[in-house]
Amino acid sequence: MTGRGGGSGEGTGPGPSPADERLERQLQFLLEIDRLKTVLRRTLLTDRSRRENSAEHSWHIALMAVLLAEYAPPGTNIDRVVRMLLVHDLVEIDAGDTFAYDTAGNAIREDRERAAADRIFGLLPQIQGDELRALWEEFEAGASADARFALAIDRLQPLLQNVNAEGGTWRSHGVTQDQVLARMSPIADASQTLWRYVEWAVTEVWIHGQVRDPDADPPADLPSPGNSSAGFRPTH
């Protein structure tokens, strides 16, 4: 790459062209979002070896949206859903990840994330930055069909992780079954098939004692459920 002046470094040369400035801002943005790989979420990998980072989460849910597109409401634009999912957590570069069940943290999350959105999307050329910012705003509002399916996928992914990590952060943070179902409720608005899976999977985890609510009776001596999807039969 050339320097900021766009020349070879020999002499002063002409100033940067508009095309050079556009590319430079795009590359600056791409380098900046590399920092998302350093933002750790609470969710464990399914092998429980470490916590996942927010870039891994974003990749995972983007692919989930493609693979689970058949369960989206009619007319859902999966391309837009994927674009939303790829940008929705970029604000965590500045704002950090807020644990889903942290009531106090979530109360002040919006202000932090909006300030982050101003800076991060502002790195791009204006039209491109405005387009991605609009997708982020649409996801946050959750009012469109595309945003509702994107939100459903975003909620489903950590559920899969926790179910397949023997309760994961639900167990380590004392999260209750009611809290999990409330957190997952946007899935019911987007897909009844996915919601039936959620109800089934959460019930299995609690029935088999991988997670239990505080003050609950000890679980019965039941066999392990094994793979979280082995006994589930989805219907459209």
What does this structure look like?
The protein has 236 residues and is mainly alpha-helical. It is built from twelve helices and two strands. β1 and β2 form a beta hairpin. α2 (54-67) packs across α8, α3 (78-87) packs across α7 (126-141) and α3 crosses α8 (145-163). The protein is globular, with a radius of gyration of 21 Å.
Summarize the helices and strands and which ones pair or pack.
Elements: H1 18-32, E1 40-44, E2 51-53, H2 54-67, H3 78-87, H4 92-95, H5 103-107, H6 109-121, H7 126-141, H8 145-163, H9 168-172, H10 177-184, H11 186-190, H12 192-207
Antiparallel strand pairs: 1-2
Helix pairs in contact: 2-3, 2-8, 3-7, 3-8, 7-8, 10-12
Strand order of the largest sheet: 1-2
Order of helices and strands: HEEHHHHHHHHHHH
Rg calc:
21 Å
Counted beta strands: 2
Tell me the overall shape.
Answer: globular
Q: What distance separates the N and C termini?
A: 52 Å
* Uncertain segments: 1-11, 218-226
Strand content is under 5%
Number of helices: 12
